[in-house]
From TrEMBL:
Cited Gene3D superfamilies: 2.30.30.90
Source species, domain of life: Bacteria
Taxonomic source organism: Pelomonas cellulosilytica
Protein name: Ferrous iron transport protein A
Entry annotated with the keyword Isomerase: no
Alphabetically ordered keywords of this record: Iron
Domain Ferrous iron transporter FeoA-like: from-to ranges: 5-81
Length: 85
């Protein structure tokens, strides 16, 4: 995973950086809601756990907070691997 992809496609455990948050046309309010939760460009994020199905819920950590997101919500968050400076 060298280029930006969605948080929904990210492997569990990998340190990531939020690049962008968007929203589907049917739920434009998701972008503001995800930003309010802390999914902001430059923020550290990591998938901690996935549901049993590949398109199930994800448990993610953003900053110091942990959330459960639906797959569709995680699709709205573009991420890249976190660089170790």
């Amino acid at each position: 995973m060298s280029e930006s992809s969605s948080l929904a496609a990210a492997p569990a455990g990998q340190a990531l950086t939020v690049q962008q948050v968007s929203a589907p046309m049917h739920s434009p309010e998701w972008a503001a809601w995800l930003s309010d939760l802390g999914f902001l460009p430059g923020e550290a994020v990591r998938v901690l756990r996935r549901g049993a199905q590949r398109t199930g819920n994800l448990v993610v950590r953003v900053g110091q907070s942990t959330f459960a997101l639906r797959h569709a919500e995680a699709e709205c968050i573009a991420v890249t691997p976190r660089r170790h400076d």
